[in-house]
Every structure is written in C-alpha cells, then in structure tokens.
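Take one record.
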Amino acid sequence: MSGFVTGLVLGAGASRRLGQPKQLLEYRARPLLQAVVDTASSASFDQVVVAIGGAVPEVRDAIDFGTADVVENVHFTRGCSSSIVAALGVVDERADGLVLLLGDQPGVTTDTIRLLVDGAGDVPLAVCRYADGRGHPFWFGRAVFDDLGALHGDKAVWKLLESGRHPVREVDIEGDVPLDVDTWADYERLVATEAAE
C-alpha cells in the first residue's frame, strides 16, 4: 500500500436479530470478531482501529486487539455510521484514507484489502465488485472524511456511495460477496461454508 492507510473494523453491533453477541460466535476456533481483527492486523495497514459497543466487557475479555486502537461507541444502537463517527476521532491525521471492514464478515482476505487499496488510486470512494454485486470492504479517501463524520443510521455508507457527490471506483474481486452475520441462519450458512472448504 502506498501512503498512510488506516483499517477500520466495525465491531460494535448490538446483535438484535441474533439474540446474542455475534462478535463472540465461534469461527475457526476463535471469536468471529477476532478473525476480522486478525485479518486487519496482518494487512499492511499503518493503523488499525476497532470500534466496539455491544457487549463491551465480554468483547474486551475475549478479543486480543494487539496494537489496534480500540474505540468504544456508546451510541452503537444508532447504527453502523455511529461507529464510523466515533472512530474518526482517533484516525491518524496522516491517513490518506481508510478501509472499512465489517466485524461480522470474516471471509474478507488481506489480498482483497490490497487489491481494493491499490485499485482505488486517487479516487475518494472505491468498492469491491464481486461476481454477485458490490460489497465490503470499502475505501474512503481523506477527501470524504467530513462526509463520513456527518453520517447517520444504518446503510449510510451505501447512501454516500450512491449519492453521486463523489466518483466511485469498482475494484474487481474474484468470487461472491463474503458472508456476513446478522441472523442465526447467516451464522449457520457461514459455518456450513467453512465446513465445505
């Protein structure tokens, strides 16, 4: 990666639809959130920030954050955008941009992250174009940090991408959009996919 790049992991979900902290569900013999934190930590980021909120005591006990900056989002029930807003306060001032990673999407690889950052070039917004559609991770250049800080609610980053206010580059990634976990059925699909590999 060229320039200074921050990786931001969103791990503050309330897990309302799941009924228990999804951050702590077992995935490859470790908590689900740990898998994503480990991926972020092994990518070539200059800084890793992890936003937590739901089940904070349990998450802090279970997750090894390593050298990542951990931000507690006290407004986590207001949607993913509240975690982005909370995390922006600790994003290094040298950051040319950040890569947004979902804490419940462990299938994203370091290769995908590298392809996204390299493919983004000098555009302010970039998304992964998988075989079955657009998906995370997303790239946000510093030019749109103010826009990120003004987001509200869930799916707000998608609205920013689709607003037409900034050019968006699609970066081709092999395979389908990696599974994320919102419901128990999602988790069962993730586990079944893992077992089939």
In short: The chain has one domain: 5-196. Residues 125 and 167 are 7 Å apart (CA to CA). The first strand starts at residue 5 and ends at 11. The chain has seven helices and nine strands.
